[in-house]
Amino acid sequence: FMPLHKNKKIGLVLLSLALLAAAFLAVSFRASSVSFSSEEICSGLSSQESFSFLKTYYYEHQNGEIEENTIRNTYRATPSEAIETCFFNPDTGETSPPQYYAKDNGSWFFYRYDKDDTWSREKLENFTVKDYLMTSSFSISGVDLQIVNDWKQAGTETLHKQQAVRFDGTCSAEQYLKEKARLNGEAYVEPSADPAELGTIRASVWVDEASRQVLQLQYDLSPLTQSGGTDVITVTLWDETAPFEVPEAAEISDSQVIS
Q1: Cα separation of 48 and 20, whole Å?
Q2: Antiparallel, parallel or unpaired: β 119-124 and 252-258
Q3: Nearest Cα residue to 63 out of 176, 174, 228, 250
Q4: Per residue in 20-41, is it b (16+ CB within 10 Å) or e — as a string?
Q5: Which 8-state DSSP code applies to residue 153?
Q6: Is the dihedral of CA 182, 184, 187, 193 positive or negative?
Q7: Mean pLDDT of the 223-247 span
Q8: Are 95 and 110 in contact (CB under 8 A)?
């Protein structure tokens, strides 16, 4: 038999190891607390050679009528930076006549289709791809995802043949409206109703299980609708980046400057 004092020593060692393991797990858990930054996501995207994402607007009226539209945005860095944007049907692949944001001789322009194969363009002041993404892609209508601070893992799903981890979070509608007003350079106007009654904005993010890349964002702005309908917006990285050509200069008439 092993002497009693040796058993006590072994027990103390095992207890110490268990406490160390528990401490390590606690530290790891705190270190891996989840947060998402729209600025970081959009900076990462804007540094790529090309990418495409879909933005789907889903609105259900109180009478059950549904409006659903999807816009496809495609970016390319070469031969010159440009973004193509158009209405898109994911089921059929059909698109509407596109519009473009394109860089020409160091300046950005917005290209609009007029008629009879002619285009007009307006010069854009202070336009950047990152700013465009901040307002159009992985943010809550321009408000950084950092406004959400209670992300919780909500299981795994298969998203476009990729294994993705889903995280759900919320922020108060009042907090969102205050930040939206600040970004727009406007004074926040208190709603006539109790701010607490505005409700909660819910958001979900899907992250690639292997690469940790954000694949999809969905947020629900229903608490802010005047008619009490359902207003959900979904942004999804699209795995097909179709090539495109910006209209030739001969087809374009220049017009005013957009600041």
Answers
A1: 42
A2: parallel
A3: 228
A4: eeeeeeeeeeeeeeeebebeeb
A5: E
A6: negative
A7: 88
A8: no
Locate 53 and state its tokens.
């994402």
Contact between 108 and 124 under an 8 Å Cβ cutoff? The reply is yes
Type of residue numbered 2: M
Tokens of 124: 């854009």
Contact 68, 102 (CB under 8 A): no
Q: For residues 229 and 57, give the distance between their C-alpha atoms in angstroms, rounded to a whole number.
A: 13
Global model pTM greater than 0.90: no
Q: What share of the chain is helix, strand, coil (3-state, %, to 5)?
A: 25, 40, 35
In angstroms, the CA 230 to CA 232 distance is: 6
CA-wise closest residue to 164 among 204, 221, 220, 219: 204
Reading across the β-sheet that carries 107-113, which strands appear in turn? 152-159, 162-172, 200-208, 214-220, 230-237, 50-60, 66-76, 82-87, 99-104, 107-113, 119-124, 252-258
From the number of C-beta atoms within 10 Å of its C-beta (0-12, 13-18, 19+), residue 214 rates as buried
CB distance 75 to 50 below 8 Å = yes
pLDDT exceeds cutoff 80 at 13:
no
Instruction: Report DSSP state, residue 222.
Output: G
Rounded Cα gap, residues 84 and 241, in angstroms: 11
Cβ-Cβ contacts under 8 Å for 90 (sequence gap 6 or more): 54, 70
The average pLDDT across 139-163 equals: 93
pLDDT top residue among 12 and 58? 58
The structure tokens 């969102």 sit at 176
Supply the pLDDT for residue 249.
Answer: 65
Confidence of residue 62 (pLDDT cuts 50, 70, 90): confident
